[in-house]
Amino acid sequence: MGLSAIKEDLLASARHVEGFLRTSLHGRGVPERLLTSMEYSLLAGGKRLRPVLCLKWAKLCGLDMEKAMPFAASLELIHTYSLIHDDLPAMDNDDLRRGKPSNHKQFDEATAILAGDGLLTEAFSLMAQAAESLPAERVVCAMKAVAAAAGAGGMVGGQALDMEYTGKAGISLDQLQTMHAMKTGALIRVACLSGAMLAGSKASVLEKASTYGAAIGVAFQIADDILDVVGNEQEIGKPVGSDEQAGKNTYPSLVGLAESHRLARLYVDRAVECLEEYSTSEADFLRQLAFYIVERVS
Amino acid sequence: MGLSAIKEDLLASARHVEGFLRTSLHGRGVPERLLTSMEYSLLAGGKRLRPVLCLKWAKLCGLDMEKAMPFAASLELIHTYSLIHDDLPAMDNDDLRRGKPSNHKQFDEATAILAGDGLLTEAFSLMAQAAESLPAERVVCAMKAVAAAAGAGGMVGGQALDMEYTGKAGISLDQLQTMHAMKTGALIRVACLSGAMLAGSKASVLEKASTYGAAIGVAFQIADDILDVVGNEQEIGKPVGSDEQAGKNTYPSLVGLAESHRLARLYVDRAVECLEEYSTSEADFLRQLAFYIVERVS
Asked: Which family does it belong to (chains A, B) (predicted)?
């Protein structure tokens, strides 16, 4: 599988997830304006990386992908809510998201806060829904893992640290890595892990899914930081150099561009190692996905 | 059980819940400032009504209360997060909560948003934790019910409607009731329902728990609206008449004080009817609790 094949597979998988997402909030009695606001952000495109990782790991571990779909899709609801809240004026104050007005710009702040709250809560509703076709024990374990990864000791805590560190000098690489591992890494890691959990995998496999996810999470963050320096506005959906302007601590700002590239490749290698024993098309996809992360910035 | 006995039992139950809440967020890797902010609001007092309702219904249906505790406590995390977000400048813009500075006043807006997000997510972590001592099927069902009640078709949606209706003339009693049923009723209802669910109760009992919870939820809201007109500032923790000043639609503003009192009593009767078959001390508590709601405003 080459670079164009992985892109195609990623697109096809994203479309598959989107088919599910499109009706995922319907029939729940959501007031109209709130629903419009939630779907404005949820259906605004994106690679759907987290659901796809969950589905591919579930399949790799022997589970029918359709059974994992509600759970996988819930990860996109969580990712979307985090973007809406991060964009708020009191947080990163971003007017644009994926080239369109951010949620609070398109609607208003109150609606954006509630849209985020709603997406986060509906995510757990979707996860619970997965128990209709999977053993409840597996689903509860995976829900617990997602809550830990997305919560105050994970994604939410990472955003809190990011706010604390922004504009502050003297942040160490170690602090930066912990912050990113929580803010973006934890959800990517748990996407892989939960897929394996839903399939009922044994501990050694869960370990591999977790390590793979954590490693590509780091590689992905470094690549994003690099793109903010060397990318073009259309590709990244926001002005180039916006991290630097916002006083964000990034890999390039802390260790330079060359070392950032080296680190990204190191983590990709670590991710690929986790798949050594596997030779299915899903394993191939997950391997190529890891390579793709660094290829798009080199 | 008289008025003073119910007050005492309510206080003792609240203290029991607080004992659990006090350490519920520890050992989760939450950054210090964020944890301080979350606990500032979570441990600021309150009647702990939702956890107590869950515990009492669980016990009434034959479950050891300790097994339901993590789940019951999670409802207080959800309630607390909703208060923090509702107080934000973009929402109700309240500077005071329970006589103390609201979360965003004590910390800052970003921290308050994240503290709310963190509490909501950790709530689901606590719920999943309940599966350590209860069948996973029951826990998942109860989690699904809580997510639906707290989500965009429940509490979050109710707050969205409240924002939409505030300052608007011509809101009907029907619209007001739907809004309240979502905003405050749904979580109170599901507190009772989830307690019965965790105990593995049959459908007819779940129905009673749900009806009882919905009815006291309405009675409670009417009583709150009445207190905002006739209560004193110390008792309600915010200035008297603040609803009217904020242009809020309330029961007294829509149907008058006398009719509000009559409606409150009607819903209390409906709640008490659900307990007809029960004669345990928990049933007595739940009956007296319903009466207590209207007694405190008469």
From this structure: Belongs to the FPP/GGPP synthase family.
78-97 of B, contacting A, C-beta below 8 A:
81, 85, 88, 90-91
Taking only the tens place, the pLDDT of each residue in B150-172 is 999 999 999 999 999 988 888 89
Give the pLDDT confidence score for residue A78 in this predicted structure: 98
Taking only the tens place, the pLDDT of each residue in B92-138 is 999 999 889 999 999 999 999 999 999 999 999 999 999 999 999 99
Angle, helices A49-60 vs A186-198, to 10°: value is 30
> Which residue, among B191, B38, B156, B158, has the nearest Cα to A81 in the 3D structure?
B156
Residue A66: in which H helix or E strand, if any?
A: helix A65-87
Residue B74's closest CA among B28, B5, B129, B1?
B129
How many Cβ atoms are within 10 Å of A280's Cβ, its own excluded? 13
Nearest residue on chain B to A86, alpha-carbon basis: B110
- Do the chains contact at A85 and B137, CB–CB below 8 Å? no
Query: Given CB atoms, is A65 within the 8 Å cutoff of chain B?
Result: no
Interface of A with B in 105-124 (CB under 8 A): 108-111, 113-114, 116-122, 124
Quote the pLDDT of residue A238.
Answer: 60
pLDDT digits (tens, 9 = 90+) for A98-126: 889 999 999 999 999 999 999 999 999 99
Q: Is B164 in Cβ contact with A122 (below 8 Å)?
A: no
Identify all chain A residues contacting B81, using CB atoms and an 8 Å cutoff: 117
Q: Which residues contact B85 (CB under 8 A, 6 or more apart)?
A: A113, A114, A117, B91, B112, B113, B116, B159
* Domain annotation for chain A: domains and CATH numbers: 3-295 (1.10.600.10)
Contact partners, residue A216, CB within 8 Å, separation at least 6: A188, A267, A268, A271, A289, A290, A293
Distance CA A267, CA A297 (A): 14
Q: How far apart, in whole angstroms, are the C-alpha atoms of residue B225 and residue B223?
A: 5
* Residue carrying structure tokens 């995510």: A123
Residue A244: per-residue pLDDT: 66
What pLDDT, in 10s, does the model give residues A240-297? 666 666 677 789 988 999 999 999 999 999 999 999 999 999 999 999 999 998 887 7
Within a 10 A sphere around the Cβ of A132, how many other Cβ atoms? 12
Q: Where is average pLDDT lowest: A62-71, B42-51, B221-230, B256-265?
A: B221-230
Q: Tell me the per-residue pLDDT of B286-295, one tens digit each, with 9 for 90 and over.
A: 999 999 988 8
B278 phi and psi angles, rounded to 5 deg:
-105, 145
β-strands B96-97, A96-97: how paired?
Answer: unpaired
pLDDT at site B102? 97
Which of B124, B165, B168, B187 is most worth mutating to test chain A (most A CB atoms within 10 A of its CB)? B124
- From CA B84, how far away is CA B34, in angstroms rounded? 13
ipTM of the complex: 0.94
Cβ separation of A29 and B153 shorter than 8 Å? yes
